[in-house]
Every structure is written in structure tokens, then in C-alpha cells.
């Protein structure tokens, strides 16, 4: 009898275990099916073009000023990305007049555009207009601006990093000792950020002395800078009195380079910020004093800014602030033959390959609008 009971107990245990295993298998299969269905729905929703961006969108680009080749390549980047998305853009150039920039912003709002891009400018001049845009449900993305409003994404080139990369290279080339001049101008958010690093730079390298600081932003910035550097060279005519010039903007660097070339001062080197095709040509010239610059691809900046705007219009989450990764471009890294900006990725790791702010559906949108 005991033996029979034991046998029956074992059979019962096997039956219960088998049932439990079958239930677990069914449960696991159901979970896997549900997960696959959820993942499939998520993938579909991520690649499906949001209805808000399916129509051709009208975008306004409000610029504080449009000076030099950096700005022109930035504008081309904005235009190219918007055209790839099937939209159109109107560029408002404010000629470095903040009152005019505020008026241009109002004009864009009154034109009932679908989105607004802002290039430079100051918060005190634009805050009221941007708030008006947001109240009208017009999303805003700004570049190199000090706006800090909920819902507005502000992108920059990481101006602190730009300044440090260039200045650190200068210090290393001078072996931590020498006299330098700084070409800089206030009144612009990126310049104020770069100034913070300039001040910190002297604490890190106390044996590097600033003997002059100057700079103006105008419609002829490069020419103005050339004249200012020519006057500077008369103050320091002897080799060793001035070792380098740090130019906080490529328009400054272009003017400094031309002044040094005309004076035959190969003993003074230029370290800059920003880069364009014209800048590259100057750097690649034989015996060019322009030996290094820290930069992001201006066209890529424009494209990233547009993509953030389209994400906002599609009601996707976007950050309040975003910094693009800058690169150090040294003359010694470039080939002897001339290269253009679009070829720099062959020589500068990571250049021009940004997928920042790129949503999966954007690829489909670009293909459909071809």
C-alpha cells in the first residue's frame, strides 16, 4: 500500500510540474509575442513620418547679421536641410541691428510661419518676440544666443571648448611663454563665452602675456582687423616682441593673416576660431601664419538647427540647450594640395558626420521629397 501511495504521489508531482511548465511556456510565449508587437509598433511609429511635417513647411531664419563665408555656409546648410524635407525658408538679415532683428522676428510671426530659426542676437531684444511666437504655437530654435525660455532649444558650438582648443594649442606651441594679442569683440553671446576661457587661460599659463586686445564687428570686419593689426605691428616691429595672435572669430583671423603676410612677419602665428572654405585656402598657403583653428562645420550647424525645429514641429522631445562637438584643425594635419570643407573628414576625425537631432523618420521624409 505504501508503495502504491508513493507511486501515485510521484505521478501527481510529475503532472503538476508538467502543467506548471506548460503554463510557464504559454506565459513566456505570450510575453514574447506582446514584446514583439510593442517593439514593432514602436519601430513603425518611429519611422512613420509625423503628420505635422508631411506638408511643406514655411520656416523663417532671423539673423543678427550675415558677414563672411562662415555665415554663407551656415545659411546654405539651413537651406539644404529644409529643402530636403520639402520645406522653404525666408532669410531675414538684420545688418547687426538688434531693433531691426526684433522687427524681423515680429514680421515672421505675422506671416504665420511654421517655425522660426534665430541666429545670434540678444535675449533683451528678442525675448518678447519669442514669447509671442510661442503663444502663437510657432516653435523656435536659436543658435549662439543667450535666450533661456522654456520650450526654446538653444544650440551652440560649445564656445568654451572652441576657445580652449585653440588657446591650448597656442600655449603648447609657445612652450607656455610669450606675448600675444587678442582680437575679440563684445556684444555677442559666443564672444562672451569665449572671453571666459581667455581669462581662465592666463591663470593656467601665467607666463603668456596679453599685450593688446582689440576688435570690431562691421560689414568690413576683416579689413578693419587688417588695419588694426598693421598698427599693432608698428608697435612691435622686432622679432620676439609679439609671438602670436588669437582671433576669436575667423573674420578677425583673415584680417590678421593678411596684415602679417603683407608685412612679411612669418615669426607671428595666428590661432583662430571657426572655419570656412576661404579660411582653409588661407591656412593651406605656403608659409601661412594661420597654423590652427577650432571649429565646427557651419553647414552642419545649420542642418542640426533645422532638424531640432522639425522635431519640435513633430512634437518630439528636444533639449533646452545643445552643444555641437568642435574640432581642432591644424595646418600640419592638412595635405599640401588644397582641400574644401566637404573633404575635411578625410583628415579630421569626426568632421561633418554628425547625426545630431536626426530622428528615424527624417530619412523617409528626405527620400519622399526627392
From TrEMBL:
<feature type="signal peptide">
    <location>
        <begin position="1"/>
        <end position="20"/>
    </location>
</feature>
<comment type="similarity">
    <text>Belongs to the bacterial solute-binding protein 2 family.</text>
</comment>
<dbReference type="InterPro" id="IPR025997">
    <property type="entry name" value="SBP_2_dom"/>
</dbReference>
<keyword id="KW-0732">Signal</keyword>
<dbReference type="InterPro" id="IPR028082">
    <property type="entry name" value="Peripla_BP_I"/>
</dbReference>
<dbReference type="InterPro" id="IPR050555">
    <property type="entry name" value="Bact_Solute-Bind_Prot2"/>
</dbReference>
<feature type="compositionally biased region" description="Low complexity">
    <location>
        <begin position="29"/>
        <end position="48"/>
    </location>
</feature>
<feature type="domain" description="Periplasmic binding protein">
    <location>
        <begin position="61"/>
        <end position="313"/>
    </location>
</feature>
<protein>
    <submittedName>
        <fullName>Sugar ABC transporter substrate-binding protein</fullName>
    </submittedName>
</protein>
<feature type="region of interest" description="Disordered">
    <location>
        <begin position="29"/>
        <end position="49"/>
    </location>
</feature>
<dbReference type="Pfam" id="PF13407">
    <property type="entry name" value="Peripla_BP_4"/>
</dbReference>
